[in-house]
Amino acid sequence: MKTPILAVVLAGLVTACASTPTVSTDHDPNAQFGNYKTYSWAMKPEGASPLAQQRIISGIESRLQAKGLSQVASGGDLALAAHISSSTKTTLDTMYTGTGMGGWGYRGGWGGGIGMASSTTQVRNYQVGTLIVDLFDAKTQQAVWRGTASGTVSSSPEKNSAAIDAGLDKMFASYPPGAASP
């Protein structure tokens, strides 16, 4: 069932460790960001738990408003679309004991003996969630800005909430492009 997985993925953009999401942004160098004063939602993120969805929506809105944009119900200068995706990644952790090479030297030369070695491999599956935020010029319907944040999902709602904030902070730190960062 995908909905619970997406709920966890959306809520978590980083691992339970102290890591932060990987964030990147891109923009149209010809866009006149100084002309954009309002925004409206074209598509809100779906497929997550209602609480995680609320956190992401309010996080995006508060950051855009802090940058001087005002939200309008429809017809904003910018159309805002946010999407989430998830994928399952697998890692193999192998631990070795002994060398299995035997001895070297006087009798038998290099590796001439028989040695005992063993290995244990553990398969670990984990979820990676990605949040994508796109801004479109509403008049031209052309994309003008994109931000992405991606990270490993934690099982802790508190850590996931902190990860959402960290990802959005990094994503909007240099918005609008060319403006001095605070």
TrEMBL record:
Statement: the UniProt record of this protein carries the keyword Signal: yes
Swiss-Prot/TrEMBL keywords: Signal
All copies of domain DUF4136, residue ranges: 23-177
InterPro entries: DUF4136
Domain of life: Bacteria
Any single Pfam family the record assigns to this protein: DUF4136
PROSITE patterns from the UniProt entry: PROKAR_LIPOPROTEIN
Signal peptide extent: 1-18
Protein name: DUF4136 domain-containing protein
Organism lineage string: Bacteria, Pseudomonadati, Pseudomonadota, Gammaproteobacteria, Lysobacterales
